[in-house]
Amino acid sequence: MGELTKLRAAPRVRKAKVAAVDKADLPLGQILDGDCVARMRELPDNSVDLVFADPPYNLQLGGDLNRPDGSHVDAVTNDWDRFDSFATYDAFTRAWLAECQRVLKPDGALWVIGSYHNIYRVGAVLQDLGFWILNDIVWRKTNPMPNFRGTRFTNAHETLIWASQGEKARYQFNYRAMKTLNDELQMRSDWTFPICSGGERLKGEDGHKAHPTQKPEALLYRVLLATTEAGDVVLDPFFGTGTTGAIAKRLGREWIGCEREESYRKVAMVRIEKELPLDESALTTMQSRKSQPRVAFGAVVEAGLLKPGTQLFDKKRLWTATVRADGSIECGKEIGSIHGVGKELQGAPSCNGWTFWHYEHGGEVKPIDAARGLYLLASED
Are strands 233-236 and 254-259 parallel, antiparallel or unpaired? Predict the structure, then answer.
């Protein structure tokens, strides 16, 4: 067992006490058609664990954009991305963020993605509303669209804001899972993914891309794996072609979408219906060490999972220690805790005895952390 367990929240993370909302009262697995603000008003207070929002960027594009060879660039020129002024855009932003704030649980969180055209305005509004910014994530695109006119730097990134409900609010963060995903290095705030292209890029009936700003699945996979757990409800107020819903279904999360464009809704539903959820065993992830209940080695000895007299050894078998009745261990002249003895033997500033010491069971060598895992399982039962 060790650190492999089902997604579980750290003690500092979960869960604030609020009146429970029956999931049967939520439109789970549905795309709500129409204006997102109006449709979110139909949702109960404190009913959503996470919001992922990919709002209009208000790109303010003027005229057609062409490549040096004269060919047309398929840019974002849709009506849904047009606003009369910054004031109009700010009012729109405040309206949908306020509804997100209402439907989010006190320990829920918000992700919003944007470009330099809008993300600073969105960030100011969400701070004015009382959200607390936890991180800004830079999505660096490996294959960005060039700056065809050669008048600016190539715009090769977008920014995501991750925010909690307030400075003191609790929130979900699967730190250990992210570190494991990143080859045992802390996950950084700069993420590198290609833009959505190739087979992942959805096409409409006319053969053209179904949505101009479809996000890569890898981006949503990381967001949901990092900040939700299985069974959580994820709301996407700008659902588009359903990337959030597809990844939520894959990872065993519930989802609700809002989308006013019928063509996007049709493509999204076809896509999500084809998505297969992962087996429960595949959803097992690395739990944060901080989220494990503290267990004394003596409790494991008391429970008979490691009996007094059991021989422990380090992975290289340089040292052998004997388990004593009081949960201490003895190695030559060194007597003390599993951590203290390991520290002294190595001359190290510290030692995690749970992973340093091993034992044999049924002909198999295991870290004593495996015995702690068995203890925790028995405690849950």
Answer: parallel
Q: Could you give the residue ranges of the DSSP H alpha helices within the chain?
A: 36-40, 86-103, 119-128, 175-181, 217-227, 243-250, 262-274, 297-302, 338-346, 353-356, 369-380
Residues 139-152 have pLDDT tens digits of: 999 888 887 677 88
Can you say how many angstroms the Cα of residue 84 is from the centroid of all Cα atoms in its chain? Answer: 35
Give the Cα separation of 175 and 177 in Å (integer).
6
pLDDT over threshold 90, residue 10: no
Give the E-state strand segments of the chain in sequence order: 4-5, 30-33, 48-53, 104-114, 132-141, 157-164, 190-193, 233-236, 254-259, 285-286, 311-313, 320-323, 329-331, 334-336, 358-361, 364-367
Residue with the two structure tokens 């996979």: 221
Task: Please give the model's pTM, rounded to 2 decimal places.
Answer: 0.69
Residues with Cβ within 8 Å of 335's Cβ and at least 6 positions away in sequence, in order, are 324, 328, 329, 341
Q: Which residue in 192, 244, 236, 186 sits closest to 215, CA to CA?
A: 244
Q: Which two tokens stand for residue 142?
A: 């490996």
- Rounded Cα distance, 216 and 221, in Å: 9
Of 96, 93, 58, nearest to 258 by C-alpha is 96
Q: Distance of alpha carbon 121 from its chain centroid, rounded?
A: 24
